[in-house]
Amino acid sequence: MKFSSVLVLVLIVVGLVFTVRAFVENTSPYVKVRDLERHSRNVHVALTPIKETIRFDLKTMTLTFEGKDETGVLKVVYPKGKPNNFEAATQVVVIGDYKNGIFEARDMLVKCPSKYQGTASAQR
Q1: Residue 39 DSSP class
Q2: Same domain, 21 and 42
Q3: Could you give the percent of the chain with pLDDT greater than 90?
C-alpha cells in the first residue's frame, strides 16, 4: 500500500473517532425531576412553570422559578434574561446541570399555546 493511501485512511479513522466522541459528549437526554440525582449533567428537563414562584432580577438579568413535572418540583436558575412569552408558557424545557438542589439552566425552550389553535366551535 502506498504511504498516501495509508495516510488518508488514518486521517479518516481519526476524523470518525473525533466525530463520534463529540456526538457522545454533546448529547443530552430528557430526564424527569426524580432522576436528576443520577443524571445531573447536561440534561433536558420538561417542566410546567409555577407562576407564583417566578422572579426576575433586572440587575443581574437572572430568572428564577420553580417548575413541576409528574414526578416532582424543581428550582431553576436561568442567568440569560427572561425569554419572550415566558409568562404565557405552558411548558418550558431547561437544558443544563443539576447542582445542590438547584437546576442551573444554560438554555431554555419556551412552549406556548399555539395561536393557531382555536376553540371547537371555531374549527367547524
Answers
A1: S
A2: no
A3: 42
CB 77, CB 104: distance < 8 Å: yes
Other beta carbons within 10 angstroms of residue 57's beta carbon come to 11
120 falls within a domain: no
Separation of alpha carbons 65 and 54, rounded Å: 4
pTM given for the model: 0.71
In this predicted model, what pLDDT tens digit does every residue of 9-51 receive, in sequence order? 889 999 998 888 877 666 677 889 888 888 767 889 999 999 9
User: Cα–Cα distances in Å, from 4 out to 16, 18, 55, 103?
Assistant: 18, 21, 61, 51
Half-sphere exposure of residue 7, counting CA atoms within 13 Å on the CB side?
Answer: 3
51 within 8 A of 88, measured Cβ to Cβ: no
Asked if residue 78 and residue 24 are part of one domain, the reply reads no
Find the domain containing 56 and state its range: 31-111
